[in-house]
Each structure stands twice: as C-alpha cells, then as structure tokens.
Amino acid sequence: MNEEYDVIVLGTGLKECILSGMLSVSGRKVLHMDRNKYYGGESASLTPLESLFSKFEQSDTNEKFGRGRDWNVDLIPKFIMANGQLVKLLIHSGVTRYLEFKVVEGSFVYKGGSVYKVPADEKEALATSLMGLFEKRRFRKFLLFVMDFKQDDPSTWQGTNPKSTTMNEVYKKFGLSSGTADFTGHALGLHLDDEYLNAACGDTIQRIKLYYESLSHYGKSPYLYPLYGLGELPQGFARLSAIYGGTYMLDKPIEELVMENGVVVGVKSEGEVARAKCVICDPSYCSNRAKKVGQAVRAICLLNHPIPKTNNASSCQIIIPQNQVGRKSDMYICSVSFTHNVCSKGWYLAIVSTTVETDNAEAELKPALDLLGSIEKKFIAVSDIYEPSDDGQESKVFISKSYDATTHFETTCNDIVDMYRRVTGSEFDFAKVQKDLETVEQ
C-alpha cells in the first residue's frame, strides 16, 4: 500500500475492470480495489441462487429451482453486439481466451399488442407480418440504402446529408410508416427515445448498419452472450490486468479519497494511503462528485418455460418501443436459460428493464411482464442512475456513469471509450483491433 501507482481503480464493475485491463496493457501501473468480496459490483452475476434471495431479503429458495450453484443471475442484463465495440475490446485485449460465447437466438419487437421477430435476412423480411407487402418493398429499399451508405462518400448519400438531414426526413424519403420507423429506430438503431428523429441521420444510419453487420456474422440475431453469465467479463479483464502487473485487492474498505489542492493524490484504506496520479471509480465511491439523472427499474424473473411467441427461443431480446405503450422511454426484455449455464436445467431467466417515469416503478413494467407468461419468482430492483458532475480533468477523479436500462452494451462501451480518452488524453484506437471475429468461440 505504500507504493505509488499511475492509476487506482475503485470498484470491479465491468467498466472499471475493462479500463483497468486496457491501462495495464498500455504500460500503466494499476492498483484495483473493491469494498466487496466478489467481482462485478453493480454488474455482478450472483451465484448460488441463495445469494439472489438473500440480496432481495426474500425467504429461502424452493427445491423446485434445482441446485443453487447451477444459477448465475445477472443483476444488469446486457447482450453483446457481435460487431460492436465490446467485441473489439475483447479481441484487442485477448480476453476472449477466458470466455466462451453463445449466439442469442432471436431479437423481437413489440407492435400493436403482439411480439414479432426482427427480420434476420431477406427471406424473413418477405415473410414477416410486421409490415404489409408494399411497406416491405419500401423497407428493403431503405435497408439497401443504409448498407451502401458511407459517411465519407457523398455518392452513396442519395440526396441526404449525414450531418444535416434528419432521420425523420430519411424515413419520409423512403415512404416508411410511423410503425416501421418505430421498430427501425428502437429495435435496430437501439435508440432510447424518439429524440433521434430530429437529429442528423448519420449516427442512426451507422447504428442500423452495425446491427445488420453484426447479424451477418451468426444469422440468428446480432447478439452474443457469455456462458456462465456477464460476471465472467469483469473477471476476464481482471485476469488481463494481473498478467500485465495490475494489483487487485477485494474486500477492502475505502475510507476516503486523499486530496491536495483539489487534486486527488491517493486513496485511504484501513489507515493506509496508496498514492496515485489519478483515480477511476463508479459513482458509489464518490457520490459528492456525481449527479443523479434518473432511475432504472428491473424485474428479475425465474421462468420454467421460454417466453411465449418467441418460437421457444432459449435466449432472446424483446424491445418495446415507447410509442407502443404510451411512454417516453423504451422497455426491454432480456432472456437467457439453462443452455447458457446460468440456471438449472429446464429453467429460464427473463429480466425486464426500463427507465422510471412515475412514482410506481414496478407498475411501469406491467406491459413487459404480461408477455412473459407464468412467473415462478420475481425480484424487483430500482437503481439510481448517476453521471459524473465534471470530466475529472482538474481533480483527476474520473467517474463512470451508472448502467442504463438498455439490454445491450453499446452505451456502456461509449462511456468506457470516453473515460479512456479523459484519463489518457488520447483516443482508444480501434484501428489496432484485429478484425477477424472468428477468434470469438461459439
């Protein structure tokens, strides 16, 4: 503890572990501490099942759930976009050697009271009842435009401009209905609300392109999920950090950040001070430097059957666009099962999440919970969402954002890359990342 470090990282959430690994690989001396005895922090996977019941202060588990140690329950449900930023980080770092992935079987969208599979190829697009015949033709033209679109090549823009044409104007150009625009922006573009409609179209076009590029890798859906749960991810990056000289200390109470002239110089734990040039932490370690921007509500549901109307999928995502249920923000369902080694044989985990908009957070989940069929056990959690009050440049205290309600990692990765830039002063270079995704095991 008397040594001086380049960086001290507090908390072993996924964001903090990824940053710890990236900084260790780049040659920085890292000390990583957590007040908990386990990895993952807010994004942990709880095992055995008794740990989940204990966390939510519920009575002991029933024998019908099988062996408790067969369960690894994510507190923050997320899927990984196959061609997204997290896969590039995993490959860049070599963490894939510690993990095994399985393709998520389907991506679905809620429309007009029913659940529809998001078309995964041209054949499904022609067969889907999500759109009428003429709308399918218009949508196909739109998708061809998106896949051919290049930000730096005006000849592919077809009269639009990625920096000035709004997404609303693009939808109108191709004659797409509001219903089609709804599922395109939310299920393909993964926008959290409808603000994107009046923003420049470049970002949304790239998002939809990423969705279909990810889909092309595996066919069923654009998403991957690690066997044994998301808790494997922070542990993988912790191993990486340790290989490159990072030091880890779990079950370490954090007493205070030591400041001199408004700049952090170290962290005090159990009467000792470890000195460092900067500190990275999640908001729980530095609440006076973070601001609350909202809440997320999540329902962890134990099911003994797949979600109805998903073709008996052992894993899937369902997105409920805000307009379909009269809300300001989307709702998400993330489902995995015993085939991912996260629950006992014959069991399924479905986690429903959304941004809180009223005084009755649990009631807001009803439209999504109604899609799950019978629920054997349900755990409700409401989490405050925090963002750093400043960029950390003056104090050298760099704080991550809380996890939002989305069921994918793109917003999480945006925060990681932004923090890396703030800490190091340089952009994370994805150009260095190996492009061959076949190294990701299935």
TrEMBL record:
Main location: cytoplasm
Annotated function: Regulates the GDP/GTP exchange reaction of most RAB proteins by inhibiting the dissociation of GDP from them, and the subsequent binding of GTP.
Single Gene Ontology BP annotation: vesicle-mediated transport
Name of the protein: Rab GDP dissociation inhibitor
Entries under PANTHER family matching the protein: RAB GDP DISSOCIATION INHIBITOR, RAB GDP-DISSOCIATION INHIBITOR
Keyword set includes Cytoplasm: yes
GO cellular component annotations of the record: cytosol
GO function terms (MF aspect): GTPase activator activity; Rab GDP-dissociation inhibitor activity
Family: Belongs to the Rab GDI family.
Location of the protein in the cell: Cytoplasm
SUPFAM superfamilies: FAD/NAD(P)-binding domain (SSF51905)
Keyword hit for Cytoplasm: yes
Signal peptide: none
Keywords, sorted A to Z: Cytoplasm, GTPase activation
